[in-house]
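chain below, 74 aa
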Amino acid sequence: MWTWNTDTKVGTDGATATVTFSFGWGDCFVACDGFHNLRAVIPADDVATVYDLGGDPLPGGLVLSPNTRPPPSL
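prediction:
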């Protein structure tokens, strides 16, 4: 599931998007073996930052980028 949240500058060239999403693995047509959650903060003129929001441990062979950060403080 993708959810887009924007700051108060929505519709301007300086808007920042926040994308929160969950992904699963295994036979998801029947029942996923696990889910993990990430959040990407995407400024209009800078590099996206991806946060690991946690979830089930990732299965062998599936790893997050070393650039993924711990959850942001709220």
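Residues 58 and 71 are 16 Å apart (CA to CA). The chain has a mean pLDDT of 81.
thats it, cya
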